[in-house]
Specification:
The protein is 65% helix and 0% strand. With 282 residues, the protein is an all-alpha fold. The longest helix is centred in the N-terminal third of the chain and has 31 residues. It contains 11 helices and no strands. It binds fe (ii) ion (2 copies). One fe (ii) ion (FE2) binds next to loops.
Length: 282
């Protein structure tokens, strides 16, 4: 029985600053990079999961796949709202978004379904140790940030924790070859990594009022070294054959977020500071 829940919120990022957390400019930029890449990445996953439907013969896997796809589609819509708010201020960023979409469209056209499911399974497995580190250190990373985006990212990362087993479950059911997936892992990571690099260059070209220093350095420089080391180790382990996302250490915040959501709290303003809306956008 799948425990995934599709939650929809009315996000609004009008006028959000590019550096939405002045205390963490490089982390702010990384989250902006995530927005510009993940919209197309999640749509790519959705497309592959729909295409896999006819090859899923188990009812439980089919339900998990459907809910997983629905969660990812909702995430892409939320990040699109963030991207639109930035494009409104920096119109050149529309072409940046289009370039990433084109890269994923080309990837989809040039490889078989097995490749796409392996891509999704391999990268989604990385997310649990990576987002756990972010959620465990949310006070440092989000505390001084615009509460609208901080809260959206916390919700998204919690749902990534929630559906941490889904993509591998679909891959294992449809193909199940560890070696096929692992043989291509470097390629998946290179593809996604190159898009993150491309987006930095696009930001430099289209966001003229931000000093180039914000693109330099480690986004997690303020996070305790032990946490970043644990996360890096978890990412390496996530690609081992016996890795099971269901048995990974989870951030305590996942349960806390669920409790707040279940209690009916406004999870669109859970963390960070009041919205940083410039006067002209009010
Ligand atoms: Fe997602
Ligand atoms: Fe995901």
């Amino acid at each position: 029985m799948s425990n995934l829940e599709v939650r929809k919120f009315d996000w609004d990022f009008e006028g959000i600053p590019f550096v939405w957390n002045p205390e963490q400019p490089r982390f702010s930029v990384l989250m902006n990079q995530i927005t510009f890449v993940i919209i197309s990445f999640e749509r790519y996953i959705c497309k592959a999961t729909v295409a896999a439907r006819s090859r899923i013969t188990d009812e439980e896997v089919a339900t998990e796949a459907r809910l997983f796809r629905e969660q990812e589609a909702v995430h892409a819509v939320a990040h699109m709202k963030h991207a639109r708010a930035l494009i409104e201020q920096y119109p050149g960023l529309q072409s940046s978004l289009d370039k990433v979409r084109q890269a994923y469209d080309e990837l989809y056209e040039s490889h078989p379904l097995e490749y796409h499911l392996a891509y999704a399974g391999g990268l989604e497995a990385i997310f649990t140790p990576f987002f756990k580190m972010i959620l465990d250190n949310r006070g440092i990373l989000f505390g001084g940030g615009d509460s609208r985006l901080a809260s959206m990212l916390l919700w998204h990362f919690c749902e990534e924790i929630e559906h941490r087993s889904s993509a591998l479950m679909v891959y294992d059911h449809v193909l199940g070859s560890y070696w096929y997936r692992i043989r291509n892992t470097r390629r998946f990571q290179k593809h996604a990594g190159s898009l993150f690099d491309l987006i930095i260059d696009e930001f430099k070209a289209h966001v003229p009022d931000v000093p180039h220093e914000v693109y330099e350095g480690n986004p997690f420089a303020s996070v305790p070294r032990a946490a970043t080391r644990r996360s890096a180790l978890g990412i390496l382990r996530s690609q081992l054959p016996w890795h099971d996302p269901a048995r990974q250490p989870l951030p305590d915040y996942y349960e806390e977020w669920l409790d707040r959501w279940t209690a009916g709290d406004d999870v669109t303003r859970l963390h960070g500071r009041l919205p940083m809306i410039p006067a002209e956008a009010r």
